[in-house]
Amino acid sequence: MSMNFVNEPTRAWDPKNRLREMINEGSDAANVDKLVELLIMDGFDFSLTADAMTPIDEAERVVSVGMGIAVKSEMYLIENLAQAAGAAMGCSRPAYERLKVLPRERFVGMSGEKFTGTLYIACAISGAQQHLKGIEKAHTVVAINRNEKAPIFRHADYGIVGDIRTILPLLTEKLNSDLPKPDPNAKPAKREMPLYSKTTATADGRYVCMGCGYEYDPEKGDPEAGIEPGTSFEALPEDWICPECGVSKSEMISAVTRG
After folding, report:
1. CATH superfamily of domain region 21-176
2. What's the pLDDT band for 1 if we cut at 50, 70, 90?
3. Model pTM?
């Protein structure tokens, strides 16, 4: 069930002058605690709920993901956080085009959907200009990225440097822990089946670069590097590198799709 967002946030809105506050309290858990504290001080109420598939241009909050997710099976991290934050789900254009994590109408950017709501949480999104054009009118932007030099941090109000596989579960747990206890006499809320889960993934031989999101497909090989179509990832030479960013074979992980 969707609910209206009332009287939030309280901090003055100035999208041309983001706070650019990096949260570095020490541990990942401490950073997450500080982020939630700041958002609550800004007036955000995390006891509210929203439909994860609310159209981007109608949503008050969006949790969005970029190519840093690397594999589609990890989308449950985004869905869980969106549910805890009372947000819809979105993605960057590359995450839509290359990973197919969400339908086309959910990618945010200059050539996609524009988000003008109150809270945008960018997860593993580098911050290309095309994407930034889609969130320039957002009230509050939170960036979570493992690369401390990612451009997204220069266009965010709050930023945490860290791996989304660690940060997002902590943030989800923190937001859920602050929810009011349900009325024992109330009728149980109807819960839709999740779109993604840890158990709906099957490996298919593809591998994804953790540096740039390049996907090695054994059916295509890497002809420019002399790798014939039909060559499995395991059979690649140990000195083979990502053709797009040059990271080593060891920096790539198995890609999976929903079963």
Report:
1. TPP-binding domain (3.40.50.1220)
2. very low
3. 0.72
